[in-house]
Amino acid sequence: MTRTQRVLWIAWPAFLMAALIEMVVFAFVDPHELHWAGETLGWSRQAVYTLAFFVFWALTMASSALTTLLSMSPWEINRCPVPPDQRPADCVKQPRPGAQGCQGCG
Predict the structure, then answer these.
(1) 47 touches 8 (CB < 8 A)
(2) How much helix, strand and coil, in percent to the nearest 5, is found in the chain?
(3) Is the pTM of this model over 0.70?
(4) Local structure of 79: helix, strand or coil
(5) 78: helix, strand or coil
(6) pLDDT tens-digit profile of 46-86?
């Protein structure tokens, strides 16, 4: 799986959930009624909708990214991305068990 695929797998569902959360929240909340530190925001409805959407999107992406990170195997996290014959001396990580050319893995 490429990094681009992983990012898209995180961003697209998060986008859909942010849209759903936005619809549910603003079905019950009027943006002109929002206050911060006792003062009205003074923003247009569109500005509140836009900012809220991006906040919801960022939060749901963080949640999806954490889920993706926690679902990765130790081999995916610790593997050396360089082919064995081109590795520098400090990249001595072993291939995953059962991989071709794995000596003593099992």
Answers:
(1) no
(2) 60, 5, 35
(3) no
(4) coil
(5) helix
(6) 999 999 999 999 999 999 999 888 888 877 777 777 777 77
